[in-house]
Amino acid sequence: MLELTFDATQLYAILDNFYYSSDSNEPNHRWTLATLAQLPKEQWISFVVFYKQGTGFRVQDGKLIVWIDGAKKLDVGNVPTGTQSGTPFVIWGIGLYGGPNNPVGQFERFKDVTVTSQRLEN
Length: 122
Fold this sequence. Notes:
Layout (H helix, E strand, L loop, with lengths): L1 E5 L3 E6 L13 E7 L11 E6 L9 E7 L2 E9 L43
Antiparallel strand pairs: 1-2, 2-3, 4-5, 5-6
């Protein structure tokens, strides 16, 4: 499962250690995409995520690429992106979850969300 997660100061992409093989000593994989200070305020931001599903659960042959406003922020391969059930489908969703770093009254707005098997040009 790939998460794009904000904390108090940064935006991360995270792959949970659960998806790595049981003999892996790797910690959760966490890549910093941007600091909150780097993200523009009061305007729309474009996020594009390329997610190549791996060939099996815990097989490290997947690929992740993330662009923010057209700038490539992450490009990693050899990561486990296969589902536990082995289904070839990507399960996708948007969630807004509160926590100790989230002040009351925060919100996110999304528009023009597209999930496709081919990258769309801007």
